[in-house]
Amino acid sequence: MGKNALRESFIYPPFSVLDARSRWWQDRKRQWLDLGIESGKGRKEDLLKGYAVSMARWHQIQGQDHKPADWMEKSVFDPVLTELLVAWFSPKGGRVLDPFAGGSVRGIVSALLGRTYLGVDISEEQIIENRRQAEALSVQKEARWKQGDAVRLYKSGVRGWFDMILTCPPYGDLEKYSDDPADISNMPYELFLGGFRQAVKDAAARLSPDRFAVFVVGDFRDKQGINRGFVADTIQACKNAELQFYNDGVLVTQAGSLPMRVRGMFEASRKLGKTHQNVLVFVKGDPKRATEHVGHVTPFTFPDS
Q1: Mean pLDDT for the stretch of residues 154-173
Q2: How far apart are CA 276 and CA 219, in angstroms?
Q3: Is residue 102 left, alpha or beta, with left meaning phi > 0 and alpha meaning psi from -120 to 50?
Q4: Which of 41, 116, 119, 299 is most deeply buried (CB count within 10 A of its CB)?
Q5: Of 3.40.50.800, 3.40.50.150, 1.10.10.10, 3.40.640.10, which CATH number belongs to 77-248+275-294?
Q6: Can you give the pTM of this predicted structure?
Q7: Residue 193: which residues within 8 A CB-CB, separation 6 or more?
């Protein structure tokens, strides 16, 4: 069975390596964005400012001339990845919970795929923008967001049972999502990790038995350049919440401005330029029954298709 046949059955070949650089992926991503999803809207303009400034200083020490603007790129979620994960791991008509909602992508794509989505985010500005986009695409009833704290989901108004967890947690203090002291992205790593573990536990408690949970994460470095081990910490947090580690995937992303940055970085420190994220799939209960609940994989049909 070739890749085309696998695409007909599953939208994209269900391999452990997902290549977002491919022409097929980029064409489909463009179709999603052409619907009117504005993935970067609602994010603070200085989201990566602290990281950018520290990197600029580091390069100055190395005798290299780089400006903070070179690193001020907002992280946004891929709509094609969302389509695949929702179609592969949630049932048609199911409820999707996103405790670290961020931008509009996961909510709007989930809604257009026939699911109902509830995202929790601490930023009022982000929530307002997400709701605006959902209304513009007429999915405001299916894609909903609540302002609140992922560490206190019940207090944030999260009720009932869900058929999937799909989320992308903050990478420690790499990005500052708000000025709220309760925002775990403002905390030192050990405090951040404690809050993250509680958020995972609360979300897992709202997941129905025999269902899947997907966390898209990546390792990030401390101030000395040492990897935190956040991927391993996420796996352990999910295991502590009685979610069994089921699939380990890798999303290979486009290099962007990395080729311009990696030479100096590698020569000075032997740090590899990162072009991937980890896609971690967990199951609560029995994976066979969870698969039966999901049923047949159905792609989204674009209006001009």
Answers
A1: 91
A2: 10
A3: left
A4: 119
A5: 3.40.50.150
A6: 0.87
A7: 233, 237
